[in-house]
Amino acid sequence: MSALEGRIAAVTGAGRGIGREIALLFAREGAQVVVNDLGGDFDGSGSGGVAHDVVAEIEAAGGRAVANLDSVATVEGGRAIFQTALDAFGGLDVLVNNAGILRDRTLFKMEEEDWDLVQDVHLKGHYCCSRPFAQYIRETSRPGCRIINFSSVSGLLGNFGQSNYGAAKAGIAGFSRVLALELEKYGCTVNTISPGAATRMTIPLAEGRGETVDPNDPKRGPQQVAPVVAWLASPAAQEVTGQIFNIMRGELGIMQQPAVIRAFKSEDVFRLDQLDELMPKLVEAKRVHDEQVAKGAEPEPVEG
Ligand SMILES: NC(=O)c1ccc[n+]([C@@H]2O[C@H](COP(=O)([O-])OP(=O)(O)OC[C@H]3O[C@@H](n4cnc5c(N)ncnc54)[C@H](O)[C@@H]3O)[C@@H](O)[C@H]2O)c1
After folding, report:
1. Which partner from 56, 78, 247, 256 sits 20 to 30 angstroms from 275, CA to CA?
2. What are the pLDDT digits (tens) for 190-243?
3. Cβ neighbours of 240 (radius 10 Å)
4. How confident is the model at residue 303 (pLDDT cuts 50, 70, 90)?
5. Nearest-angstrom CA–CA distance, 130 and 179
6. Is 42's C-beta closer than 6 angstroms to any atom of ligand 1?
7. Which residue CA neighbors atom 39 of ligand 1 most closely?
């Protein structure tokens, strides 16, 4: 039996890039798929029908899919994506919050619209699409559901010129941690992907650094992300929740979450002269910790 046989999934931003690969693999693994995509430009302007192309591709290969062209950035859009799954397939088991745009600028040049649109599509988009699904899971006690969210090293580690996008992507990691707790008792897992893939979103950035990237290279293209998402959507992942998985350049890893590394305790409010001594110790503890984490993150080769 295929890994996602009988499952119903909605994948946002599935008309191109990483989302398209996820929708195609989900359908090959037996899922019925809502292919959502607004179909606009990479900066969030415009709209188009790319979702229909992916549905046609899935159907031509013998799979089942339906297109939805709503924006994830509105509450109405999120509800409509969920309703499309109910109308077409009679339920929903898996939501992949993948849709995204970029408006890269340093803060000096970042206008309010650049900030707001990126928050709306990424962070609010996760809220708009997840809420109807979460309510449905609670109301129907639907078992084994999954929410898979999309963060980025831009927010988890930091990246120049992306304060809007980085803030939204770090927010998504926080959103996912909370949602994992809230949905645990309903048996729904919530995990986060930190991807790296050659798509229209990243190819111009790589080319700007003088790199040539081939989206068909399995180590660089968006197809490397899809199996990780499919596994998280499958029954095999029932006990895995609240985690962040990093998949890029053919390397799969799990990321650390914020945690206190070293701490001091005082019976009174810390004095500034005490902090002169304690703060450098904390900063040093963090440096040593980062070194150890970096060593642990050296990828191990996988046979076969
Ligand atoms: N490619 C990478 O290296 C990379 C790195 C970090 C994070 N990500 C994240 O992965 C996800 C997928 O990115 P990608 O590289 O495949 O980009 P992409 O531009 O190829 O695909 C994103 C899709 O989302 C759709 N979309 C945009 N706004 C939408 C909206 N409001 N409603 C519905 N659909 C909308 C677009 O039309 C597009 O088809 C994004 O969330 C992105 O931020 C990608």
Report:
1. 256
2. 999 999 999 999 999 899 999 989 999 999 999 999 999 999 999 999 999 999
3. 15
4. confident
5. 9
6. yes
7. 16
The CATH number assigned to the domain with range 8-254 reads: 3.40.50.720
CB of 115 closer than 8 Å to CB of 123: no
Give catalytic residue positions. Answer: 165
Q: Find out whether the beta carbon of 223 lies less than 6 Å from any atom of ligand 1.
A: no
| N- to C-terminal Cα separation, the chain | 22
- The protein residue with its alpha carbon nearest to ligand 1, atom 42, reads 100
Task: State the Cα–Cα distance between residues 245 and 247, nearest whole angstrom.
Answer: 6
Q: Show Cβ contacts of residue 46 under 8 Å, excluding neighbours closer than 6 positions.
A: 39, 40
CA 125 to ligand 1: nearest atom? 31
DSSP single-letter state for residue 123: I
Token pair for residue 87?
A: 């109308």
Give me ligand 1 centre to Cα 79, in Å.
20
Instruction: Supply φ then ψ for residue 51, to 5 degrees.
Output: -60, -35
- DSSP assignments along 61-92, one per residue: TT-EEEEE---TTSHHHHHHHHHHHHHHHS--
CA distances from 23 to 96, 110, 227, 252, 260 (A): 9, 33, 11, 20, 38
- Gap between the Cα atoms of 110 and 291, Å rounded: 34
CA–centroid distance, 20 to ligand 1, in Å, is 10
CA of 50 to the centre of ligand 1 (A): 13
Annotated domain spans of the chain: 8-254, 259-304
| Model pTM score | 0.98
pLDDT digits (tens, 9 = 90+) for 94-122: 999 999 999 999 999 999 999 999 999 99
